[in-house]
Amino acid sequence: MRDFEKWTRNFITAPYIIMESAILFETSFHRLFDKIITVSAPVELCIERVMKRDGASREHVIQRMSSQLPDEQKTIKADFVIKNDGKSLLLPQILVVHEQLLKMPGI
Length: 107
Known about the structure:
It contains five helices and two strands, in the order αβαααβα. By secondary structure, the chain is mainly alpha-helical.
């Protein structure tokens, strides 16, 4: 977190800054942010993507995912949800979130 805070000092004029974390809620870091964006995808697709990206076994990916909140719980807690299911277009969803963030006072 210290590294992130140090890094953000480079962007003090940015309208907002985004931090990526797969375990944001599990670490309680979500309390430090004004808004939460969750990227949601079907479990099987997530497993396949991580296996391909990391070269990890299916069992290892499932084990890692078991220490994370399920998407259903994350989406309930999030202010914005972006669906990354391989079918929905991402850019239009991102632009909607971006526009909404820009309209928020203090962000």
